[in-house]
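hey so i finally got around to running the thing on that chain from the lab meeting. sorry it took forever, my laptop kept dying and i had to restart like 3 times. anyway pasting the input first so we r on the same page abt which one it is
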Amino acid sequence: MGCTALIVIDMINTYEHEDADVLADSVRASLPGVNAVLRQARADDSPVIYVNDNFGRWRSHHGEILEAALAGKHSELVEPIAPDEESLFVVKARHSAFFETPLAYLLGQLGAERVVLCGQVTEQCVLYSALDAYIRHLDVVVAADAVAHIDPSLAEAALRMMERNMGANICLSHKITFDNPPVR
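ok and heres what got predicted. didnt touch it at all, straight out
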């Protein structure tokens, strides 16, 4: 079996957008779960890939995106989960982590057959990334306590859709293992 990669979606955020305050509250609640899956992936030497929006800054790179987020109004939500030196980083421009990014190629190079998704926003970028992973024949796991939402009811519906329509394993972060068969 191939490896499992952790994909951290849009957690490097300046929170300078509509719904930022509602989202920030949900992100705050999800941080322990995000930290748990980051620790487990790193302890197991599994690839950690941050896939992050460039917020329309077309000349930016991952360091600049991180600097802007750390200088933003909710740096306390970014600092604890910031990429380390071993983390990989993919810049995206739209909702899906896969849409017109090199993520699928990178996962292929790493031999990944399974992805664990965490981050924001459950009912948007996490949902679309899960669908794109599924159609690429990757096993999908979503850490339910490590995703943040804007609308709780839409987030719950998105998690149900990922489980039912994409066969995603929706579970708590402490039940996720890397490079092992999915926990059901």
